[in-house]
Design brief:
This protein is an alpha+beta fold and about 475 residues long. It has 3 domains: about 160 residues, no CATH class; about 220 residues, no CATH class; about 90 residues, no CATH class. The protein contains 11 helices and 21 strands. A 5-stranded antiparallel beta sheet has the order 1-2-3-4-5. Strands 10-12-11-18-19 form a 5-stranded mixed beta sheet, with helices on one face. A hairpin with a 6-residue loop joins strand 16 and strand 17. Helix 6 runs antiparallel to helix 7.
């Protein structure tokens, strides 16, 4: 069979790839069979660009993400999509083409092809290189062009993280898409959990601009501004047998007896008068109020002795009121709202590698989480910077009316961006040390706990879909 079909999720849009192992051509089609784009070398041509953009924007809307114009879509395809499709094509051709075919593919300049004659490989631009294909090289594109240009000395897709002078790949999604199990779950129609890692973006600009941060946090959706740039990694994991959420807010009992109530009323009146009339006049007006309140208490024969006992107890630090009268002041107990609470989510995964590639993927998944939760240091080691944050989504993989798959689950909760607060790995879950020949453990269990960066507000629930947050 000279044509091999694979499937790729391009920012939530399911694209079917048909790679010809004889000619090296790849065709990109919709799930309905519409031909969207083709490539026989390093360049792509859109066969039905309007349809491609329509399907892509439908997928964006289903994820509550902004739609793209023709120019923006071309930029996204060149900067991120092309690398995904090139990598998938190369994986097919390097494994399913004979040596003569691969020599021809290298001559054509098809990206990521290994030359069987000398072991060299073509890079993202189709040029031969002496290094191994490792997904680290990123392509440089002209945003206004539908075909790639020769990369400059410094790729615009590589930036420097000023927090710790570490090179950050802006298009790292194409290099760090990790799946367990290794097969694309979307191909089989399974639902899955999608986890993306982002650099943390502090609210420096908002603070410098004098923005009211209380107002910012209540806008419902501003939390996504904590996500800096593109995702550094994407991880796809299977659904778990136990998935739940817990929403809570902080309510607490509060007491206010009659004496405190009267005193509080006088204090509020005094503070208001100070604002309106000034301190001296307000104090004069407050004194008659104090006398009036005391007179109301002390002229009542039923409470006169109890009030005296109460203040005597306050003076000596003992409950004289109960001892002397057998009574207590009515506390007027009431449940009052204190504020929201942050939610936490726990996940337990069991990884059982079935081959060497899957063992390597599991190792990389563990490293991504451990690296992401660790704080970065400044160059002088004087400061520590906020660790990376994670975006979690439950993905429903059935086709919608537009033929799209891989959308946020319509009947499960949504999760705001989270910090990874705890990460535990058990390398011997069966209490037996056992490895494969390459050293990989035969099984791993991983426990993760995430905490949302911001609480859930009513506006979030109103504006969300499905069961809300």
């Amino acid at each position: 069979m000279s044509e091999i079909k694979t499937t790729r999720l391009f920012n939530g849009l399911r694209v079917e790839e048909f790679t010809n192992t004889v000619t090296g051509e790849i065709q990109l089609k919709s799930v309905n069979g519409d031909l969207l784009a083709t490539s026989s070398d390093k360049n792509y041509s859109f066969e039905n660009k309007s349809k491609f953009i329509q399907l892509y924007n439908n997928a964006q809307r289903n994820q509550n993400k902004p739609v793209l114009s023709d120019k923006e879509f071309t930029k996204e395809f060149n900067n991120n999509g092309r690398a995904l499709f090139d990598n998938d094509r190369a994986a097919v051709l390097n494994n399913n083409s004979n040596e003569d075919n691969r020599i021809a593919f290298v001559a054509k300049g098809i990206p990521r092809i290994k030359d069987p004659t000398d072991g060299t490989e073509t890079n993202s631009q189709g040029n031969k290189t002496t290094s191994e294909i490792d997904g680290e090289e990123e392509q440089s594109q002209d945003p206004d062009s539908s075909t790639p240009t020769t990369p400059p000395e410094t790729s615009p897709n590589t930036t420097i993280d000023n927090r710790n002078n570490v090179a950050v790949r802006a298009g790292a999604i194409s290099g760090e898409t990790l799946r367990y199990p290794q097969y694309d779950l979307s191909i089989f129609g399974y639902d899955y959990i999608k986890i993306e890692r982002f650099k943390y973006s502090p609210r420096t600009a908002a603070i410098l601009a004098g923005t009211n941060l209380n107002e910012l946090s209540l806008t419902g959706g501003d939390v996504n501004q904590r996500l800096s740039g593109s995702a550094l990694d994407q991880i796809f994991l299977p659904m778990q047998p136990s998935l739940s959420e817990s929403n809570s807010v902080d309510w607490g009992g509060d007491r206010l007896n009659e004496i405190q109530s009267v005193a509080a009323g006088l204090a509020l009146k005094g503070i208001g008068d100070i604002a309106d009339k000034g301190f001296v006049e307000a104090f004069k007006n407050l004194l008659p109020g104090i006398g009036s309140a005391a007179e109301n208490f002390l002229t009542d024969p039923n409470t006169k002795y109890a009030i005296a006992a109460y203040f005597a107890g306050q003076a000596v630090g003992a409950n004289i009121l109960s001892r002397a009268t057998g009574s207590v002041l009515n506390p007027n107990l009431e449940l009052l709202f204190n504020g929201p609470r942050l939610r936490t989510f726990s996940f337990n995964f069991t990884f059982t590698p079935r081959n060497e590639k899957e063992a390597e993927t599991i190792k990389q998944i563990i490293r991504v989480f451990k690296t992401g939760m660790a704080p970065a240091t400044s160059t002088s080691n004087l400061f520590l910077y906020t660790p990376d944050i994670f975006k979690l989504e439950y993905i429903y993989n059935a086709e919608d009316i537009n033929g799209n798959t891989g959308q946020p689950h319509p009947y499960m909760n949504k999760i705001k961006p989270c910090a990874l607060t705890q990460f535990n790995v058990n390398y011997t879950p069966s209490s037996v040390y056992m490895t494969y020949k390459n050293g990989s453990m035969t099984q791993y269990t991983v426990q993760m706990q995430f905490a949302e960066l911001e609480p859930i507000y009513q506006k979030d629930q109103i504006d969300s879909t499905g069961t809300g947050f």
